[in-house]
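Students often ask why inverse folding is considered easier than folding. One informal answer: many sequences map to the same fold, so there is more than one right answer. In these notes we will look at a single instance of the problem. The structure comes first.
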């Protein structure tokens, strides 16, 4: 560190504003032009490029002490940062579960950043925008009027927030005494396909991962209700105190949907909190064809879902909803002298956001959601979700028809697990082969699926939350898998 920071030439006149507003305007226009070009032609680029040595070196420079021209920094950005993107903006990215974003949302982000509100309290438009977006999210999930919600960084935080509400609702003393005051240990239940963020939430809640019971699944990877009941009965007999069931609507591995109706009944009968991790799957609630399965979402005590996955919004934004708003508020609200609500002036306005979650300072992530819902309308977004589901089914059918390819799980939503299987290799060899195929797919830049392991079998995993994907893109994936697979097998058998 340089401890001899020189005084400014004219003390008291420095600012971070541009010295030449005209120049920054031109640069800003250039950036918009470049980004429009970039996204418009993204499909012609490789899905993924390994960050160059030069880029990695560039990104290890020391702390800058002196100013640089922003135009030079932007040139460096275009050379060393932009080409090495995540790939999720590309039509052939189907790894993990990642949404695509859009040019319009990038512009919304710019508007939000320029306004730069702290969306925590006050009589300011950003508060009303977020409250409106939360109302719209409640409507999407068919939640009652008195439900509450909050935009958060993603489903991990949404799940943790909901589980804090579930824990605090369980016993009014928990906020004060923590878990120390409880004689019986609290336990929660979720299928063994549940996302790791639920185990992490159990740690963050002070319950520990031992408190999370991993319930078995059936052949479609949905929660086995018989085993759930056994687990609960065993825990009750042993003096534990079950308090919550976490249901999956769209597991991360295969998109499986747990039997919601039965879980609603069990929770009602046992006085347990029903939380739904619907990170991507909950948005299928927008489709009439899923109403029979998903209308039970409306009875869950809380729901967590992402808007940066299957609503195609840019990172990061997720939503937590709690069916009874009062319970939500009771879990988090605080009175602090410096945060109290006033009758008039800026400190009036909507109820403070920190009554609904652990964060105080918050960004204006609501704006991009608000703009996208208004621009497209929820019906179009629903059609895109349906399109992705139909693409997944198409891919599954093509895999089932194609010799050398093997479908590894049923396809209830937008996730397809499969592998290349020439028919004469054992499980271990198939696992190595498919892992090699995956790496070559990535390195060739043709497509980025991800991977998972189902019953010891390494699978290629395609999760389509991408509004740019076409059927032709899926055909290119299959072609590439077959070609790479054949080459690998030929190479192996030749050596
Ligand atoms: C992605 C995902 C999460 C975690 O969500 P983030 O937005 O990455 O925090 C949790 N559960 C499921 C089922 C997911 O797919």
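Output (designed amino acids):
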């Amino acid at each position: 560190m340089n401890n001899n920071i020189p005084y400014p030439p004219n003390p008291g006149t420095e600012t971070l504003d541009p010295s030449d507003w005209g120049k920054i305007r031109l640069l800003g226009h250039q950036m918009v032009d470049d980004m429009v070009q970039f996204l418009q032609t993204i499909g012609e680029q490789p899905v993924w490029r390994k960050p160059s040595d030069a880029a990695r070196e560039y990104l290890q420079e020391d702390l800058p002490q002196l100013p640089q021209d922003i135009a030079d920094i932007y040139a460096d950005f275009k050379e060393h940062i932009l080409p090495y993107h995540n790939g999720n903006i590309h039509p052939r990215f189907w790894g993990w579960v990642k949404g695509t974003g859009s040019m319009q949302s990038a512009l919304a982000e710019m508007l939000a950043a320029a306004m730069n509100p702290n969306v925590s309290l006050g009589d300011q438009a950003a508060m009303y925008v977020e409250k409106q977006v939360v109302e719209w999210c409640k409507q999407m999930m068919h939640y009652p009027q008195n439900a509450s919600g909050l935009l958060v960084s993603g489903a991990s935080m949404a799940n943790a927030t909901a589980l804090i509400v579930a824990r605090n609702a369980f016993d009014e003393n928990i906020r004060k005494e923590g878990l120390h005051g409880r004689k019986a240990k609290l336990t929660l239940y979720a299928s063994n396909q549940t996302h790791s963020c639920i185990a992490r939430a159990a740690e963050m809640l002070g319950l520990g991962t031992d408190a999370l019971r991993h319930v078995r699944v059936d052949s479609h990877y949905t929660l086995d209700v018989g085993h759930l009941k056994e687990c609960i009965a065993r825990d009750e007999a042993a003096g534990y105190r079950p308090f919550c069931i976490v249901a999956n609507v769209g597991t991360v591995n295969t998109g499986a949907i747990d039997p919601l109706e039965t879980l609603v009944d069990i929770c009602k009968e046992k006085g347990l909190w029903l939380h739904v991790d619907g990170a991507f799957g909950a948005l299928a609630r927008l489709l009439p064809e899923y109403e029979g399965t998903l209308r039970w979402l409306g009875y869950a005590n809380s729901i967590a879902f992402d808007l940066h996955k299957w609503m195609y919004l840019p990172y990061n934004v997720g939503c937590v909803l709690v069916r009874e708003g009062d319970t939500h508020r009771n879990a988090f609200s605080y009175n602090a002298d410096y945060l109290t609500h006033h009758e008039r002036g800026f400190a009036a306005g909507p109820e403070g956001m920190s009554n609904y979650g652990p964060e105080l300072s918050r960004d204006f992530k609501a704006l991009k959601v608000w703009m996208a819902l208004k621009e497209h309308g929820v019906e179009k977004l629903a059609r895109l979700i349906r399109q992705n589901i139909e693409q997944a089914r198409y891919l599954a059918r093509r895999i089932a028809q194609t010799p050398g390819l093997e479908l590894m799980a049923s396809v209830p939503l937008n996730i397809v697990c499969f592998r290349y299987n020439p028919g004469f290799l054992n499980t271990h060899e198939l696992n190595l082969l498919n892992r090699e195929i995956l790496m070559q797919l990535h390195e060739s830049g043709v497509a980025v699926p991800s991977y998972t392991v189902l019953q010891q079998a390494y699978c290629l995993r395609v999760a389509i939350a991408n509004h740019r994907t076409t059927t032709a893109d899926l055909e290119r994936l299959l072609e590439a898998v077959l070609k790479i697979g054949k080459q690998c097998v030929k190479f192996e058998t030749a050596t």
